[in-house]
Amino acid sequence: MKVSTKGRYALRLMIDIAMNDVGEPVRIKDISRRQEISEKYLEQIISVLNKAGYVRSIRGSKGGYTLTKPAKDYTAGMILRLTEGSLAPVSCLELEENDCARQGECATLELWKRMDEAVRNVVDSITLEDLVEWQKSKTNDYSI
Fold first, then answer.
1. Which of 71, 62, 5, 67 is nearest to 38 (CA)?
2. Would you say 6 and 46 are in contact if contact means Cβ atoms under 8 Å apart?
3. How far is CA 28 from the centre of its chain?
């Protein structure tokens, strides 16, 4: 499985909003500058996040975006599935029930199931709040 730029940028966008939402909405223009991602691409991603109810749009000169829930209530898996679709390593595991005619004799099915479970365990256990904390630990912006 390879996460596309859309998925990676969606995580960065959500982290940026979570870190910079200090009472005022966060503008796409500012996210674009900080993350070095084009505004047009961010607008496409934010549209998906907005339609899903992950962010709220505020219009006007002081407008922008805010999270609709606390950062601890989003998982990396939620954001990635929204932007990437299924995270399954093979198509036969994308549906609730595996309908592959070869599943009874497929030697690699157990491998794919274990990979799928491992990915789900990781992305569904890491919250946006965790990602924000990890991001804060990466910045050398220590002020006293």
1. 5
2. no
3. 16
* Per-residue pLDDT in tens (0 to 9) along the chain, 144 residues: 789 999 999 999 999 999 998 889 999 999 999 999 999 999 999 999 999 999 999 998 889 999 999 999 999 999 999 999 999 998 888 887 887 788 788 889 999 999 999 999 999 999 999 999 999 998 765 544
Provide the Cα torsion 20, 26, 32, 34; round to 10°: -20
Dihedral (CA of 37, 40, 46, 48) sign: negative
Distance CA(73)–CA(11), nearest Å, equals 14
CA distance 14 to 55: 9
- Token pair recorded at residue 2: 């390879």
In the chain, the amino acid numbered 26 is V
* Token pair belonging to 111: 């491998």
